[in-house]
Structures are given as C-alpha cells and as structure tokens.
Amino acid sequence: QLQLVESGGGLVQSGGSLRLSCSVSTISLDWFVIGWFRQAPGKEREGVSCIHKDGRVTDYADSVQGRFTISRDSAKRMVYLQMNNLSPDDTAVYYCAAVRYHGSACPLRTGTYDYWGRGTKVTVSS
Questions:
Q1: What distance, in Å, lies between the first and last C-alpha atoms of the chain?
Q2: Do residues 91 and 124 lie in contact, with contact meaning Cβ atoms separated by under 8 Å?
Q3: pLDDT by residue (tens digit) across 111-120?
Q4: Which of 66, 53, 64 is nearest to 107 (CA)?
Q5: What number is the average pLDDT over the span 45-67?
Q6: Which of 22, 41, 44, 70 could form a disulfide with 96 if both were Cys (CB 3.0 to 4.6 A apart)?
Q7: Distances (CA, A) of 60 to 13, 47, 63, 83, 92
C-alpha cells in the first residue's frame, strides 16, 4: 500500500510563503502522477497542482497559477509545493495524492487519485 505523508503546514500571514512536502513510499516517482489538493472548511476538496510521472509536465488551478510551484526530488522520493503570496483564501488542509496514470497530462480531478495522505493544515491570517 503506497503511503504519502505531508508536512510543512502552519500559520502564516497574508503575503507570506510556505513550502509543503510530500514523502512518497515508492521505489520510484516515475511510476506515479502526484497531485496536491486542498479542502477549506465547508467546501469540497479541490485540485491545486500536479506533476506528471515524467517530472516535467505540471498543471495548476487558476487560483494558484503564478503563486504556487510544484516540484519533485526523485532521489528523495519527495514532492514539494512552494506557495508564495498567500492569502486567507488559501487557508485549507492540503493533501498530496498519487495515481498510476497513463495519460500524457496530469489530472487535477480528485476522483482520479487512488492514494492519499492525511493532510497538513495551512492557515493564512489577514
């Protein structure tokens, strides 16, 4: 069973930055698409960003485009989400997820992913 563990959440002021980390218990990240999702109180879980198993193709939700950057370290089997210029609207629990996806892009649909971490909470104060 693949395990994913998120870390790096916390409390930050509006305009600040955080870097989230996702540790993936796999022999190789080349087998999986990894996505970051978030769920704010009272809202549905939504896709934030994803990185294809080739490590090059990425995608972002419109709401974070230009502020968030996804990356990975294959040797460490880690995936990161650098979040800059945070706003209170970014407050949520952030999850990383994985799927053995064979398409050419990386999906931001929650239903596509098979493995999920437990999440890390991000709170942005105004």
A1: 40
A2: yes
A3: 999 999 999 9
A4: 53
A5: 96
A6: 22
A7: 23, 8, 8, 12, 16
**Secondary structure of residue 92 in the 3-state scheme:** strand
pLDDT digits (tens, 9 = 90+) for 20-41: 999 999 888 889 999 999 999 9
Give the CA distances from residue 121 to residues 53, 99, 115, in Å, rounded to whole numbers and listed in that order. 26, 22, 19
- Identity of residue 23: S
pLDDT grade for 109, boundaries at 50, 70 and 90: very high
Cα–Cα distance for residue pair 77/92, rounded to 1 Å? 24
Q: Look at residues 30, 35, 42, 31 and name the one whose alpha carbon lies nearest to residue 20.
A: 35
